[in-house]
Design goal:
This protein is of the alpha+beta class. Helix content is about 30%, strand content about 10%. The chain has two domains: about 70 residues, Electron transport complex subunit B, putative Fe-S cluster (3-methyladenine DNA Glycosylase II, Chain A, domain 3); about 70 residues, Alpha-Beta Plaits (2-Layer Sandwich), CATH 3.30.70.20. It is found in: Cell inner membrane.
Length: about 180
């Protein structure tokens, strides 16, 4: 039995190396620029499918409201095209997170099912809670809530929530030995 397991493991290991599918590096770079909200406001089910469509020329770079004008500019720089205003009918919204009013929550679990990043925890007929660090502000939890106990709060940028938008470049070049 153990010999069969080792043999099968070896065959699977060989097959994973032999038939490996390489990811498109351009898709990875585009996906890294996108805000990873997985909100679907661009018309695609998530940031990765949108990045794939951009790289194939099937989608425009100005369809991501959470990324805003800054995201469009960064995508334009990467792809060597002119930046465009945000797509028609789309507007940039500031970074926000969902908050549940515990006095109104009935524990229906509809918001949990709608959340693309599993930032909502709770059980049926129990109050639910948002994990603020995981919430992307996509607002997909708002429509299914039957009692409208969820609202969005803008995240104020301060010293605790501020992040670098571009890769950190060292001030002094690293010397190679």
């Amino acid at each position: 039995m153990a010999l069969g397991g080792l043999l099968l493991g070896g065959v699977l290991g060989w097959a994973s190396v032999r038939y490996r599918v390489e990811d498109d590096p351009l898709v990875e770079k585009i996906d890294a620029i996108l805000p990873q909200t997985q909100c679907g406001q661009c018309g695609f089910p998530g940031c990765k499918p949108y990045a794939e469509a951009i790289s194939k020329g099937e989608a425009d770079i100005n369809r991501c409201p959470p990324g805003g004008e800054d995201g469009v500019k960064r995508l334009a720089e990467l792809l060597g095209v002119d930046p465009k205003p945000l797509g028609e009918g789309l507007e940039h919204k500031p970074k926000s997170v969902a908050v549940i009013d515990e006095n109104l929550c009935i524990g229906c679990t509809l918001c949990i099912q709608a959340c693309p990043v599993d930032a909502i925890v709770g059980a049926a007929k129990q109050m639910h809670v948002i994990i603020a660090d995981q919430c992307t502000g996509c607002e997909l939890c708002l429509p299914p809530c039957p009692v409208e106990c969820i609202h969005m709060e803008v995240v104020r940028e301060d010293i605790t929530s501020w992040k670098w938008r571009y890769p950190v470049i060292p001030l002094h070049p690293v010397k190679k030995s």
